């Protein structure tokens, strides 16, 4: 699928380890890069989920290349148990989740995800629900500031919220270009030595996108469901792109594999015998993109990959 570079593809294939006859899920189909690579790597079946109707429409062409092997489902990966169950699937040999925004979405001004080109202030990954314009024009100043701080880790969130409130009093903010200009007028460009300059609008746009799509809530629900669907030996491979996502993934995998710190010896919970974990951590620490990938695709620079595997009933890798 031209225009889309699947991030950390080599590492995804190496850790997912698709095998002939296996059943896999790409929970974030996007441009279909992972899906095609998995289907090329083994004579397997792959189910693919995406919230975006445009992604499902693009996938129909890809499905023709893999008759009977690629199956597309429109919906949220947070509903994967129901979506797959309705299709008669209750066990998987592997799941891959790419938590980043699709390049197709970022590069289409009409979707309103990026401040690099002017377009309607939308940011919805699907085709329903409140838009970013609804939030920017409707939230109270304090709630807007909290959103930018908590979901965008924007230190100057209160300054930005004040500027947005003042601007929308003159006229509703309906385009990405106008919102970016408002932010740039009150926030300096981040030019730390040794780092690429960061556009002042970056963190605020991230925060609004996360809230519009309930991304963190969706991720939490998806991780638990994906792990529950894994057959013995099955692996959950997750690629995240910012600290909020990666923190959720790391915490989930740490707890799922029984690596959470033990309670204090003074805490009564420390007396409870912990059951052996049904999962093992495949990646001791997050994998990062190789230098050659970063040179070819700078968007991959923030990617982190983590993996867990369901053990066999005996507690050993299947």
Helix-strand pattern = HEHEHEHEHHHHHHHEHEHE
Which residues sit in consecutive blocks of at least 5 with pLDDT less than 50? none
**Annotated CATH architecture of the largest domain:** 3-Layer(aba) Sandwich
CATH superfamily of the largest domain: Vaccinia Virus protein VP39
Provide the CATH topology of the largest domain: Rossmann fold
Q: Class of the largest domain in CATH?
A: Alpha Beta
Helix content: 40-55%
Q: How large is the radius of gyration?
A: 21 Å
Note the beta-strand portion.
5-15%
What order do the strands of the largest sheet run in, or round the barrel if closed? Answer: 3-2-1-4-5-7-6
Largest pleated sheet: 7 strands, mixed
Note down, in words, how this protein is organized.
The protein has 318 residues and is of the alpha/beta class. The chain folds into two domains: 9-104 and 219-310, 3-Layer(aba) Sandwich (Rossmann fold), CATH 3.40.50; 127-212, Orthogonal Bundle (DNA polymerase, domain 1), CATH 1.10.150. Helix content is 41%, strand content 14%. It is built from 13 helices and seven strands. α7 (141-152) crosses α8 (157-170), α7 (141-152) crosses α10 and α11 runs parallel beside α12.
